[in-house]
Amino acid sequence: MRRVVVTGLGLVTPLGADVETAWRNIIGSKSGAGPITHFDPSDQKCRIACEVKGKDHEYGFDPGKRVDHKVQRQVDPFIVYGIDAAGQALEDAGLTDMPESERIRAGCSIGSGIGGLPGIESESIVRHEKGPGRVSPHFVHGRLINLVSGQVSIKYGLMGPNHAVVTACSTGAHAIGDAARMIALDDADVMLAGGAESAICPLGIAGFAQARALSTNFNDQPEKASRPYDRDRDGFVMGEGAGVVVLEEYEHAKARGAKIYAEVVGYGLSGDAYHVTAPHPEGAGAFRSMEMAMRKSGLDLTDIDYINAHGTSTPLGDELELGAVRKLFGNAVGTLSMSSTKSAIGHLLGGAGAVESIFCILAMRDGIVPPTLNLDNPSENCAGVDLVPHVAKERKVKAVLNNSFGFGGTNASLVMKAV
Amino acid sequence: MSETADRVKKIVVEHLGVEADKVTEDASFIDDLGADSLDIVELVMAFEEEFGVEIPDDAAEKITTVKDAINYIDEHQG
Question: Domain Carrier spans what residues (chain B) (predicted)?
């Protein structure tokens, strides 16, 4: 089987719209949470989120940098974030000027959990108030999930596989895993893979709040709301942004002297077959996903130095993931570090798995693991596991596991190692 | 330039993201200003909103330049 490595990274997050800024803020224990500003949330149960900041902010996002004015007007923000993150990753990999023969072998696998919900909500109001003749001709293709991959392929002339995963909060991890397989199976030599999300709109917040998934106890202290593994956690904080990596066949990367961040060595997938929103009560799906990824990787359990947990800060989910990790890793759990960066940037839903995979890669690059913020009082089951409370920790990081679990009972795990 | 022309030009600049000086009266939306057929649908909708005119599909198809838009609006407005 052909080996697959990561040679480029791109991030748009609530803590920075480029890789180094976001990582510096993550390692610096900053929080991207605050009161919702995208709309007036005063009638909502949840009034906080981790929003991507405007371009005037210290670590804000300037959409004009890589996305045409016309495209910005026509599409939902998740597509704008995705195009920018993909552009960053291609630039980082030095692949923006590939000849046609290479672009035919380069594709996109950038998904989203929800897609253009803000635009669906607002255009639905236009239709209701002004009639069907006022609905934008760009409404459909400005909201579709596969239009991140579509727009990126058009912008950069990438003619290989054009794919888009939709598996709720597992999207980003599935997108990277699937794309890695496309390279391994010789469908492509280069793939842009990841996820993008922007569902911080009245309908999105209301919907998740009604499903009892969001934190509602910390509206006055937004930075305290995302607290994975803490006994006072009461739901996740919605984030937004995008993460995209360049995956590349190993010999292809080596031949052109590319900077190689990591190798994707294991990918596991499973279904809970249990409930639409609640995780399996014994974490069985999470266990099987991680177990498959580890088995495929050929690594020993003791090789894993860091787990970037799904850890959304929901009462049920965090415990079950921890239980599944304990069950799989046994005594090896004592030597690894595990943290949830959702404590800092919230839950990017379909973007989460990709953004968090990038944090895993940077942890290996720099020999430092990011913290779990707000872990003041770890819940009972946390004893004996290093959850990296409050501050980042320097340590050896040679192999990592990243978990993502989504509504519908869909699970994905990725194992990567330093090359 | 007439008042209609100024307002048409503003809409075109805003929607297509082109430099204002490129939006001459003879400019073709597709050939000179980089629009595609859907952009023209959107522009026509914006003209309808701005000027309170109805531009039926068969008339919209004949609007290919900035001048075509200005003329149509001047002839059909209130």
Answer: 2-77
